[in-house]
TrEMBL record:
Molecular function per GO: GTP binding; GTPase activity; signal recognition particle binding
The keyword Nucleotide-binding is annotated on this UniProt entry: yes
SMART domains: AAA, SRP54
InterPro entries assigned to the protein according to its UniProt record, in alphabetical order: AAA+_ATPase, FlhF, FlhF__GTPase_dom, P-loop_NTPase, SRP54_GTPase_dom
Subcellular location(s) of the protein: Cell membrane
Residue ranges of every copy of the SRP54-type proteins GTP-binding domain listed in the record: 222-413
Claim: Cell membrane is one of the keywords in the record: yes
PANTHER family (UniProt xref): FLAGELLAR BIOSYNTHESIS PROTEIN FLHF, SIGNAL RECOGNITION PARTICLE RECEPTOR SUBUNIT ALPHA
Protein name: Flagellar biosynthesis protein FlhF
Cross-referenced Pfam families: SRP54 (PF00448)
Domain AAA+ ATPase: 221-367
Family: Belongs to the GTP-binding SRP family.
Function text: Necessary for flagellar biosynthesis. May be involved in translocation of the flagellum.
Amino acid sequence: MKIKKYVAPSMRDALEKMKRDLGTGAVILGSRKISRGGLLDFLGREMFEVTATTEENVLLDRKKAPAGGGPNGSRISVTIGDDGPVTRPAAADFSSVIKSTLEQSGTPAPTAGAGGLSSGGSSNVHLLRQELKELKSAVGEMAEQIKYQKMPALPAMLKEIYKKLSGIELEERTAVELVQNLYGRYSEKEYGNRELVEKFLIDEISRMIRVVKPSPVREKAPLKIVFLGPSGVGKTTCLAKLATSKKFYGDRRVAMITADTYRVAATQQLGTFSEIADIPMEIVHSPRDLTRALKHHQDKEVILIDTAGGSQYNDKLISELKELLEAADPDEVQLVLSVNTKPKDMQHMIKRFKISQSTRLLLTKFDETLTFGSIVAVVRDSGVPLSYLTFGQEVPEDIELADPLKIARLVVNNVF
Ligand SMILES: Nc1nc2c(ncn2[C@@H]2O[C@H](COP(=O)(O)OP(=O)(O)OP(=O)(O)O)[C@@H](O)[C@H]2O)c(=O)[nH]1
Ligand SMILES: [Mg+2]
């Protein structure tokens, strides 16, 4: 009997190959996972092998073989239709097929009575069970492989880069996209060039990050900026940094307003800073209070408004923030988030706290983490532009404008 083997990075690919070659009348004789080194190896994963023949071959073989089969004359074959593998009664004596497969592959066929194959009923049931078990595991492997379908068998150098990108917590989708683009754009020799790859990755990642410049300070009406977000992320510190930094509003006529009256320490924190920096500060308890305070500071160039931090799941906080924003009618809403936060939580925080069209992301605590890959997808998917980054507790030094190239370099620096 003519038996063929199909090897591919996934079970589905191996089955596809077989289908293309043998058509829908293909009969699977066996399947297994194998390890292959070198270039065929996909990201260090195993390959899959399907051994198959055609139904015609099986029938031919059967004609040659002595009559027999299971107790009910039932025999099993697995054929591939358009909907994938199906088991059905067929005209093949499976044990003889297995025997001849083993003979062809040089493995001695087990003898009947030694726990091996026989034409007896119980061993057929055993075979059937075993085959079902293998099919079950093959389907599981296929599912496992589906997420890698988009990737071709990769040259070793690209595999290394992919692994490194995953190591810096870049979301899988982004890592795959980058490696695919690298693979598509350059020759093997070129993507072996470290500098070229580094530049490519920095350029690509920087294009994924959208930033926004600060709104210009106006002559007639003060620029109003609200800071909001989860607790402890650095909202008040950011406000203080922007109020005093000469790069930002340090030379402007600034007023500070805090609506964070939940914690006594919060008003004290800004109060102390107000005294040291000699910047006027107001405490407001309601949206109406806020309107009054804003009127009072009409002569200022910039008004910075602090709010209470809290959980994104706190509906009361979110609705109070909405009311404050209505009263403030701000030019900018700085949604402050720490880069230490888990990407999934970050995504949810953005969804909940993005209650204004003027929302921008202010990312803090870059000094407290080593890998920045995870923020790329969060920022990209959020559709909210980045405004500032902070990288320490020092006021006013540790803040700067968000720069896509700088962020991309931070991300990629951990790759090389
Ligand atoms: N390492 C580091 N610490 C920071 C940074 N920004 C702020 N912090 C610190 O984070 C802590 C909390 O800062 P706050 O400004 O009080 O945070 P907040 O968001 O106003 O907190 P709540 O008002 O309680 O919600 C303080 O110890 C800050 O010094 C940063 O970029 N890096
Ligand atoms: Mg605060």
